[in-house]
Amino acid sequence: MEKWSLMAVTVLLALTVRWAVSLGSYSGAGKPPMYGDYEAQRHWQEITYNLPIRQWYFNTSDNNLLYWGLDYPPLTAYHSFVCAYIAKLINPDWVALHTSRGYESQPHKLFMRTTVFVADLLVYIPAVILYCFSLKETSAKKKASTCALCILLYPGLILIDHGHFQYPLSLGLALWAVLCLSHDWDLLGSVAFCLALNYKQMELYHSLPFFCYLLGKCFKKGLKGKGLVLLAKLAGTVLVSFAACWLPFGTDVEQIMQVLRRLFPIDRGLFEACMFSSPTHCPDKVANIWCSLSVLIKIKNVISPRTQLKLSFAVTFLSLLPACIKLTVQPSLRGFKFALVSCALSFFLFSFQVHEKSILLVSVPVCLIINEIPFMATWFLLVSTFSLLPLLLKDELLLPYAVTTPAFLAVCLASFSILEKTSAEDLQLKAFSLSLKGYVSWVKSFPRIVRSLFLLSLALMGALSVLSAAAPPPQRLPDLFPLAVAVVSCLHFLLFLLYFNVVILWDSRSRGQKKIS
Question: Which parts of the chain span the membrane according to its record (predicted)?
Fold first, then answer.
């Protein structure tokens, strides 16, 4: 009973923080003609409610795709329709065709914010709670609640979902999929992940670890016996799940092709929004390798869009290949969670058309291993939030950022004593450090070096945050501070990618599936 009381207090605190953040501004507030992501979500409700399904993804006189046209899979559209149906009952003006464009009012803001709260309460938060209770290391009553508190107070997700404005459904469904696999409910986990993928195509970041882990389990069981049966069941489950999601579009091949063209607009080139026309100007700053390199090399002017696509695919594939091979050959739940982090980070750094918010696809899997490597997980989550700073400043979310980020650090310091967990063993680097012991003299000083780098990193992020918020940039370099944030974050992420791959490849421990407590 006590553990549930502690968890209830944790959830109440997490909801209070979300409510406080939601009182502030949102993406594109009062900024016509395009407004922002808040208007995009409202517009999708308008379109899905007023137009027949066959017109949702097509450019028509009633559906101008240049004005926030639907570019997410069918489940997002269905969710928008459900929200629109409720909105219509409250105030038809909120979803009136054409005339509701750019609609802004306090009652409507309350409604939209409430829909995000409901999604959090029904999907994301329950998955976090059950996941924390499922961890073997959290058998003590206090541990599960403290782990959940750190995950639920991760500022990046709160600021984007309840500040900037988006729904946590795809990440929540992916969490449910991980939870199901931790129970050995592989078919149910496959359904949950298919739903996540059919809500947002960016869940492809997580697709290879799911595929490799389940394929590895089939190999382990033997492809001439139980493994083959499991493989057939998984394939059937995936096909049925996708068929159910795409059923309204399945009667017309052109419908399916148009949806796919909207989901994967490869003709735009390598960059989603971070298209550097010069070293001094960039409309949106993404902390990945292509945007960082474009400060020095104008990639979009040197390489054709098709070559950009091939280069991006090759580098992404090569960077995630080691972790995927290891997971397929030695499938374990622990390896699966680390592979989720490594593969998602590879996609974020090297893949095609990356948005700054996509770092959340890396951060949520990092939250899942915060109990195993609290120091590195906390460090990564702080950097990921910092990488969102240009977007948050644009949305006038400086105050929530300045409050939630130090608060998160304080909670992690109190919950896990992270500064005391910097040894090679604490960082899951014992096997790697032993292999270097005879060649590198600084192995014994490793904990002190890591702590010093962490404090230096915090100081640098703090200084750039203050400069970005308070100091006017040089006249000749108006985007100096956002570019600095992107490049510094990218360098951090490259080092984190190296670290996570080392942990994965040097981990020789054979761990079975963790059972629910």
Answer: 110-133, 145-167, 173-197, 227-249, 335-352, 359-386, 398-419, 453-471, 483-506
State whether 173 and 251 are in the same domain. Answer: yes
Contacts of 331 (CB under 8 A, 6+ apart): 212, 213, 216, 217, 219, 220
Res 510: pLDDT: 42
- Omega before 33 within 30 of 0, i.e. cis: yes
Q: Based on the fold, state whether residues 209 and 336 are members of the same structural domain.
A: no
d(CA 73, CA 196): 10
Q: Scanning the structure block, which residue is given the tokens 């795709």? A: 65
Specify which residues 281 forms β-bridges with.
Answer: 278
Angle at 127 between CA 183 and CA 248, to 5 degrees: 95
Cα separation, 276 vs 500, whole angstroms? 30
Q: Which of 181, 165, 87 is nearest to 120 (CA)?
A: 165
In the chain, the amino acid numbered 435 is S
- Residue 437: pLDDT band with limits 50, 70, 90: low
The per-residue pLDDT for range 96-148, each reduced to its tens digit, is 999 999 999 999 999 999 999 999 999 999 999 999 998 875 444 458 889 99
In a domain, 501, yes or no: yes
pLDDT of 25-59, one tens digit each? 899 888 988 899 999 999 999 999 999 999 999 99
Q: Which two tokens stand for residue 47?
A: 């379109």
Predicted TM-score (pTM) of the model is 0.93
Greater confidence, 41 or 291? 41
Q: Same domain, yes or no, for 228 and 309?
A: no
Neighbour tally for 260: CB within 10 Å: 14
457 plus 310 within the same structural domain: yes
Segment 451-473, tens digit of pLDDT: 999 999 999 999 999 999 999 99
For residue 204 the two structure tokens come to: 């492809």
Place of tokens 């600084």: 442
